[in-house]
Each structure stands twice: as C-alpha cells, then as structure tokens.
Specification:
Layout (H helix, E strand, L loop, with lengths): L1 H12 L13 H9 L3 H13 L7 H13 L3 H13 L7 H12 L4 H13 L18 H8 L11
Helix pairs in contact: 1-7, 2-3, 3-4, 4-5, 5-6, 6-7
Length: 160
C-alpha cells in the first residue's frame, strides 16, 4: 500500500527526540570523549557528522559512531541507527534491524522509539531483529563494507 509506505517514511523521518545541544562542546572535545567510549559524545558527534554541523558531512562516520553508542546501550543512538537502517542510508535497508533497534530503545523508555516500534510491528507487521549489526569503521574499504552490508546472495565476491 503506497499510503502506508508514505506514512512510514514520514514517521521515520520525523524524530520525536532531538539530540541535546552540542554547540557548547567543541568537535575536538567530542572526538576525545567519543574515543574514550562516552556514548553521549559518540551520539552528539555522529549528529554533527550527519548534519555537517561544524564538520564535513560523513554518513559512514556518523553511522559508525551511532552504532558504537547503540551497542553501548544509548537509547537515542539506537533510535538514530534504527532510522538509518529503516531508510538504508549508507547501509543496506533492513526494517527488521530498524525495528529491533527501536525495540531496544523502547525498553529504556524512549517515547519516540515506542511509537516507531508500534507502527512497524503493528501496521507493517515487521518482526524485530534484536541483534545490533557489526559497526563498520568508515576507513574499511568499500568492497569490505559491501560484503558485510549486502544480504546473502547479493554480496560481492571478494575472493577474486
């Protein structure tokens, strides 16, 4: 149904929770904290890369940082990474992974994640995959990223 797909796109595009204001922290401060495993800093820095806010836009770096924070249990990062998988931005589109990430964030009380999960499971009938995917570092060669991101049967042959 085209109307349902349009509604899903609108729901997934509009984020009900904004990232905390990152203007008070420098890029260098966020990078240092992110490297030390600070999940909030990873999420804030990912948002800066995503929006080209004071730094060059880099979706691969953004996705990687969201993934690191999501794997560390940061609910907002789980929602953001879920939106990335729902849209397929620089990763293979995967609604099951997206729903799983929304589910993980929803269990932590993230209200927007609850609404997204309810829509995907209730109306779209998507069964969540609760396994957070491997975080693909942005410096890995494109061919290696493609072999890990594409579904089986569509993966590039890297043995040649």
């Amino acid at each position: 149904m085209p109307a349902r797909r349009l509604l899903l796109g609108v729901l997934l595009t509009l984020s009900g929770a904004e990232l905390p204001a990152a203007e008070s922290r420098s890029i260098a401060d966020l990078q240092t904290a992110a490297l030390q495993g600070d999940k909030v800093a990873q999420t804030l820095l990912a948002g800066r890369y995503e929006l080209a806010d004071g730094i060059e836009r880099d979706f691969f770096q953004s996705n990687y940082l969201y993934c690191q924070a999501a794997r560390g249990g940061h609910a907002e990062a789980q929602v953001r990474l879920g939106l990335i998988y729902a849209h397929g931005r620089a990763v293979a589109k995967n609604p099951r992974i997206a729903a799983g990430l929304f589910s993980l964030a929803a269990t932590q009380g993230h209200e927007h994640a609850k609404r997204l999960l309810q829509f995907m499971v209730g109306q779209e009938r998507i069964e969540p995959d609760l396994q957070i995917p491997e975080c693909v570092p942005p410096e890995r060669p494109l061919m290696l990223r493609l072999t890990t991101e594409l579904p089986p049967g569509r993966r590039a042959d890297t043995t040649k």
